[in-house]
Specification:
alpha/beta; 9 helices; nine-stranded mixed β-sheet
Length: 308
């Protein structure tokens, strides 16, 4: 099913193809310049650090609804093994993990989705093969550090979590900026708290998945207008789900990743950050959210770290 005309018109308004050159493969991350990172370092006042990553274990948020996107499984391959056979000498332990790269806290690469046979910048989606993504893979993002901003939409509305299926608007994002007394600047990484994560923390993985509050098509131009570099949410689907339109499947993914070239993330743990920001009144911070450099992968797990 083709995108409806109204969505295609919106896509054309926010499209960044060619903005950073015809060969560009990182899209809006180009907005994180040296000057942006230097300014972001000024956000560090106390050195306090918070992790935004979920634990990587078999109790993660995946339920099997997406075939093959499995929670991590951990296996020991050596347990206190004597290298020389003599346990009085050097002994070692080693392990390995099997996981879907988008199983827990992660970034989506620009190669993660396509429509009408195109990826970001008009690159044919045929560059994605059984070997992975020749272009637009997560390995193209060598670093992702800069100024992060928490838009705590749930807190701004005075609730612990938004109702499942609530479609966030640009006005909601403006209200969260006003609530946090923070302005989103070009090159910022925006983190959106809906409170959906509380279902996962309570042990209800099915309810965590859907219905979920999240950004809707009504927010797309807001991100484009503010020159946001990347955006992440505290839910499984990133955007509102079920989708606000029955004639468009996960359309925010398509417009963000394909048309805008804007990296997006899911399953970010924002509860501690929400409390910390409420405590010190500071909703902007230094953020290190660099992905792991899996060659030709279309996503990557990470442990984002906030420094305040």
């Amino acid at each position: 099913m083709a995108l409806p005309p109204e969505v295609k018109e919106l896509a054309a308004r926010v499209r960044n193809w060619g903005r950073w050159g015809d060969d560009d493969e990182i899209g809006t991350l180009n907005l994180i310049t040296d000057d942006v990172v230097k300014a972001a370092a000024a956000e560090i006042a106390t050195g306090r650090r918070l992790s935004l990553g979920l634990p990587l274990d078999d109790q993660g948020p995946q339920t099997g609804a997406i075939p093959g996107r499995d929670n991590p499984t951990h296996e020991m391959i050596m347990v206190d093994m004597p290298l020389t056979g003599d346990p009085a000498n050097f002994t070692t332990s080693d392990d390995k993990v099997a996981l879907a790269l988008q199983a827990a806290t992660h970034w989506d690469a620009l190669a993660h989705v396509s429509y009408e046979g195109k990826l970001y910048n008009g690159v044919p989606s045929s560059v994605i093969t059984e070997s992975g993504a020749e272009h637009m893979g997560i390995d193209k993002i060598r670093t992702l550090v800069g100024r992060g901003v928490l838009l705590d939409v749930a807190a701004a509305k005075g609730v612990d979590s938004l109702e499942g299926g609530y479609a966030l608007t640009g006005e909601d994002l403006d209200a969260a900026c006003e609530f946090g007394k923070v302005a989103v600047r070009a090159g910022d990484v925006v983190l959106i708290r809906t409170g959906q994560m509380r279902w996962f923390l309570a042990g209800d993985r099915a309810r965590y998945g859907t219905p979920a509050a999240g950004p809707s098509l009504q927010t797309v131009e807001w991100f484009h207008r503010h020159d946001v570099a990347a955006v992440a949410t505290d839910n499984l689907t990133f955007e509102v789900y079920p989708s606000e339109r029955e004639d468009a499947v996960l359309p925010v993914h398509l417009l963000h990743l394909v048309d805008m070239g804007m990296t997006q993330g899911q399953n970010w743990y924002l509860e501690d950050l929400s409390g910390d920001c409420a405590g010190d009144g500071r909703y902007s911070f230094f953020l290190d959210a660099s992905p792991l450099p899996f060659t030709h992968a279309v996503g990557s797990p990470l442990n984002p770290v906030v420094v305040k």
